[in-house]
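Let us practice reading a record.
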Amino acid sequence: MTSSDGARTLKDKVALVTGAGRGLGRAFAEKLAAMGADVAIHGMRENGPAEYGEGSTLTAVAEDIAKAHGVRTIRVLGDLTQGADIARVVETTTRELGPVEILVHNAGGDIAAKGGKPDPNDAIGIKEEDVRAVLDRNLLSTILTCQAVAQEMMKRRQGRIVTIGSVAAFKGRTNGSIYAVAKAGMTQHALPRRSAALLRHQCELHRAGRHPYRPLHGHARGRPKSSGRNRHARPHRHRR
């Protein structure tokens, strides 16, 4: 059964979804495919979905999505903390499907160096190898993957990048503190005020994720609307 043609607004577009073998990543890939996009399904390991009890293989996920929505899909493996792997993922996607026009960078998570949650997982007790693993999986992979994809988008003057935020970036927490630090760093890297200077008028940058203090996403084109308040103005003082 394929998706309705009436909703296929992304027909002939090419999307790369990282961490797409299960969970939110697979849901993002399914939605893009339902809208007509051809999708590269990324994961670190071929058997990753089975390791988390959410399917069998990454190849099977790609095949299921292609069959359900009548689009082209491929599976691409790679460690997104390594620049060479990222380059290969992007090159493979471009060769097999076409230039990446939409990136959803979903890969990450509060995962220890040897898998599972770090234990202990507080700021003082967490092991050094787990600190590096969490920061690399989340912050470093975001920086390197967005760099690799954005450079090609800028040449074409077209593209969309979505990164996944978390409320953890804005609230202090005892458990998962390094993950919170990584997500805060991702937010500062991905928000338009940091990256828009290079991307403005060429492609758009979004950060998805709920949190209590900022809007869900921003656009790299143009400046956000002013609230009408001059933040540099001196406070009004009442005369006595």
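A brief commentary: The helical segments are 23-34, 48-51, 58-69, 83-96, 128-156, 177-190, 192-199.
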